[in-house]
Amino acid sequence: MAAARSSDGSGPLRRAGRTVGRALRAPFTGTAKGIRKATHAHGAGESGLGKLIELHAVNGAGDVMITVALASTVFFSVPTDEARGRVALYLAVTMAPFTLLAPVIGPLLDRLPHGRRAAMAGAMLARAVLALAMSGAVATGGLELYPAALGVLVCSKAYGVVRSAVVPRLLPPRFSLVKANSRVTLAGLLATGVAAPIGAGLQAVGSPWPLYGACVIFIGGTVLAFTLPRTVDSAKGEHRARLVPRGDDVRLSSPGPGSTRSDLWSGRWRGRRDGTRGKPPGLRSVGPSVLHGLQANAAHRALSGFLIFFLAFLLREHPLGGQSAAVSLGIVGVAAGAGNAIGTAVGSWLRARGPEAIVAAVLGLALGVAVLAAVFFSTVLVAALAAVAGFTQALSKLSLDAMIQRDVPEEVRTSAFARSETLLQMSWVFGGAIGIALPLNGVLGMSVAAGILALGATASVRGLLGAARRGSPHPRVA
Prior knowledge:
By secondary structure, this protein is an all-alpha fold. The chain has helices at about 10-40, 45, 50-75, 80-110, 115-135, 145-165, 175-205, 210-225, 290-315, 325-350, 355-375, 380-405, 410-435, 440-470. Helix 3 packs antiparallel against helix 8, helix 7 runs antiparallel to helix 10 (about 325-350) and helix 10 (about 325-350) runs parallel beside helix 12. Mean pLDDT is about 75; it is low at about 1-5, about 25-30, about 240-280 and about 475-478.
C-alpha cells in the first residue's frame, strides 16, 4: 500500500484525475485570464473600469437572451401580417409607455447619487425575476408577456443611464472618456455576439430556455455590480442638469460657502446676488457643440430604430437576392454588428480628436449611403447601409461623449449623460414606430431613412462645423 502511493500521499489514479481535471479546466481558465487581462489593461483594473466593462458584457449577454426569446415568440413564429400586428402591439404596450417613463428615469436616478451600484444591481435583479416570469408566457405569446417586457425594457434603459453616469468616475489616469466608453461598448458587443448563438441553441431546446439563461446571467450581474469601487456611489460636488433651461438667465449655484468663480457651460459662473440657490443649467446652455451633437445622434438613433423594424419585415416578405428570409436577416444583422464594432474600435483609436467634425462627417457618410440605397436599391446597398448605420452610430455616440466630457464640468456631467441617453432612447422609439407603420416597399423605406438623416443633417451639421472652426471656449478633457 505504501509503495502504491507517492510521497505526497496521493495514488496514481488520483494524480491522473487531477491531471485530467486541469486539462479540462485549462481552456476555460485560460480564456477567463485572457479576458481579465484585456479588460483590466492600461490602469482599468486599478480604477475599477475593468469591472464595469465586465458588468456591461454581462448586461449585453442577458439582454440578447431575452431578445432571442421575444423575437421567436413575437416575430418568427407567426405569419408576416400577424407578426406586424404583434410587433405593433409590442411597441404600443412597451415602447409607448417607455417614452413617457424615459424622462422620469434621469431625474429619479439623480436622486440616488449614493446608490448607483445598488441601482445597477437592482436593474439586473429585476430583469432576472422578469425573465423567469416571462418563461411561462413566452410559448403562448399571451398579453401577460408584454407588461413583463416593458419592465425589462425600463430596467435595461435605467441600467444604461446609470452606466453612462458612472464611467467618468472610473477613468484611469490619462484615459479619455471616449476611449473608456469604446471599451465598455465593445465588451457589450462581443458578449452579444457570443451569447446570441447560445440563445438560439437554447431556443431550439425549448422557448423558455433562453429566459432561464437570461435569469442566471442577470443574477451573476447583480453580484458583480456590488464589486464596483465605492467611488461609483460618490456624489461629491454634483448637481442635476435639465434638458431645457428655465428662463434665459440660467445659473448654477455654488456648491458651498467659500466656493470660487469658475468657468461653466455658458463660459461663466453667474452667482445669485440674493444668496438663493440658482437653477442648474440645461443642455442647451452647454453651447453649440453638445446641442448639435445631440441632434445628430438623435438622427442616427432614429435611423437605427427604423432599420431594425422596417428591414425585419421587409426582408421576411421580400428576401434579398433570392436568399431565404433567415439568410437575408442574418446578412443585415451581421453587417450592422460588424459596422458597430468597427466604429467603436475607430472611436477608441481617434481619441476624441475633433469630435464635431467627426459627427458631421459620419452623418454625411450615412446620408450618402442611404441616398444610394434609395436610388439603386439592391442587396449590396441594403447591407452596406446597415453596416454604415452601425459604424456611424457608434462613432457619433463616442464623439458626443467626448464633447460632453470636454464642455460639461464634473459637477453636472453625470446628470448630463443621463439626460442625453434618455433623449436618444426616445429617438430610437420614434424611428421604430415609423418602421412599423411604413408599407413594405424597399425604395420607399430607404427614402425615409435618407429623409431621417437629412433632417438631422439640416439641424446639426452647420452648427457642428461652425463650432469646430471656433474651437471649444472651455476645453476640459479629463
